[in-house]
Design goal:
Layout lengths: L3 H17 L4 H17 L18 H18 L11 H17 L6 H25 L3 H18 L1 H7 L7 E3 L2 E4 L4 H22 L3 H21 L2 H18 L1 H20 L1 H12 L11 H7 L1 H15 L30 H33 L4 H20 L12 H16 L5 H5 L8 H8 L3
Helix pairs in contact: 1-2, 1-6, 2-3, 3-5, 4-5, 4-15, 5-17, 6-8, 8-9, 8-10, 8-16, 8-17, 10-11, 10-16, 11-12, 14-15, 16-17
């Protein structure tokens, strides 16, 4: 039975949100692009979307996706540089050079047209981030509006489907016994949950003033964690936990002490209760503990399909280590090294894939870019700043950290049509924006936030 009514309800919920809750042309343009990528990440056929509507470059929904990306770029073009913004030339240079290498690599790619199209689409996304979103998120009140979009997204696409799972299962995707909710892959719900969790934490910590507001935020957070656990996604679970830990580690010294104590207690439980250790290992090994060949975690690695692909393509990548095979081309070498055609559609490692695509130059440029963003994250943790600014930065740092980890096991980092890619690069852009300069509005205290925050802020001062 088709579950198309649920897809329609999700789309209408977001459209209502953009019309009545979120203001500003740029934010709405971003929201519409977010929505079309959300539709692509869903279990499309289950919700009544035929393959011919999405599969080819010029299919109807694909054309809508690129039109909305173009609209986002147009809105980004119209955003002016805010007062006080300081450009980071080394960071911008690394990003521009990486994009140029992507575009130039299409010259020797086996499929020049496809490689050039993928490179051009990423260049458009990078433009929307570097010219639009980075200036938009420089303003604190606009950053909070951006947070609201993702907070509401968690209510729309995560909580309802978990409730449906426990009330009959209509419209819920189950893959090999693993919960995927609205999405077409259990790993997708894990990654999306990891990226959306920091926005929920921000709402709980900053915007939820009354007790009932905090209660429902805690309920939403619990639903997210339950959904991630039911998905059985090891990567998603680890990234969600990392996002939570990173968020609280950034916000205050007190939270860091609590993390240290909590982590010590958590590890102690595994020594005191061996059954917990057994359950954790069973979850990590995910069925391979029943294999005769697998006796421990080390032997499990050789049984993993990702390891099979990585070891298979590595010698091929080394042969073209200085040039690569052309942007978005190296994943085509995967198929002969795995019997699982579904798993073989991508390399399941964004860093190894960029090495196969662009060789050492591309990998070094990516490493330089991530290193500089990482330094910005470190500066937030170590410097003294206002509580609100630290909370905002914590959201982006948590998303950046979760994405860097998740990319070790998935190949979405440079896929513009992938929702996870948008969530990662928007978090990265937000971190760059919040560390670009000291916002003038921080010193005046004139932030457009819900009633009650200023009273909190007067108690907080500086960390």
């Amino acid at each position: 039975m088709s579950a198309m009514p649920l897809l329609i309800a999700v789309v209408l919920a977001f459209l209502w949100l953009y019309l009545y809750r979120l203001k500003g042309r740029f934010l709405r343009a971003y929201g519409l692009f977010f929505l079309i990528l959300l539709v692509f990440s869903s279990n499309k056929e289950y919700y009544g979307i035929r393959q011919e509507l999405t599969e080819s470059t010029f299919s109807p929904l694909s054309l809508i996706r690129w039109i909305l990306l173009g609209w986002l770029c147009w809105q980004a073009w119209k955003i002016e540089v805010p007062d006080g913004y300081r450009f980071n030339l080394p960071l911008a240079s690394a990003a521009v050079l990486l994009i140029l290498v992507m575009l130039l690599s299409s010259i020797f790619a086996a499929d020049t047209g496809y490689s050039l199209m993928r490179g051009a689409s990423f260049a458009l996304l990078a433009f929307a981030m570097m010219k639009g979103l980075v200036f938009y998120l420089y303003n604190s009140s606009q950053a909070v509006q951006f947070f609201r979009l993702h907070y509401y997204a968690a209510w729309i696409v995560l909580l309802p489907f978990l409730l449906l799972l426990f009330s009959g299962g209509y419209g819920v995707t189950i893959i090999m016994g693993q919960y995927a909710g609205f999405f077409g892959n259990q790993n997708t719900i894990g990654a999306v949950s990891a990226f959306l969790t920091p926005y929920v934490l921000f709402h709980l910590q900053v915007l939820a003033i009354k007790r009932w507001q905090k209660a429902i935020d805690l309920g939403l957070l619990a639903a997210i964690l339950i959904g991630v656990w039911l998905s059985g996604s090891r990567n998603g679970t680890a990234c969600t936990v990392l996002a939570i830990v990173t968020y609280f580690f950034v916000v205050s010294l007190r939270s860091r002490l609590r993390i240290l104590v909590g982590g010590t207690v958590f590890l102690s439980l595994f020594f005191l209760f061996p059954a917990l250790q057994t359950d954790l290992i069973r979850f990590i090994r995910k069925g391979t503990d029943r294999s005769v060949q697998v006796q421990d975690l080390r032997s499990q690695l050789t049984e993993e399909r990702r390891y099979e692909m990585w070891t298979g393509v590595w010698p091929r990548f080394v042969e073209r280590s200085m040039t690569g095979y052309g942007f978005a081309q190296s994943h085509l070498l995967v198929h002969e090294f795995t019997n699982d055609k579904e798993a073989g559609r991508s390399l399941h490692n964004s860093y190894l894939e960029i090495f196969g695509d662009l060789g050492v130059p591309g990998l070094l440029l990516l490493a330089l870019l991530l290193y500089q963003v990482g330094l910005k994250a470190l500066s937030v943790v170590t410097r003294s700043t206002f509580v609100l600014e630290r909370q905002i930065s914590a959201v982006f740092i948590a998303g950046f950290a979760a994405g860097v980890l998740n990319a070790f096991f998935e190949s979405w980092m440079f896929s513009v049509g992938n929702l996870i890619s948008l969530l990662f690069w928007s978090a990265t852009t937000g971190l760059i924006a919040r560390t670009a300069w000291i916002n003038p509005e921080e010193t005046t205290g004139q932030l457009q936030l819900p009633v009650g925050w200023n009273e909190r802020r007067s108690l907080a001062g500086k960390q």
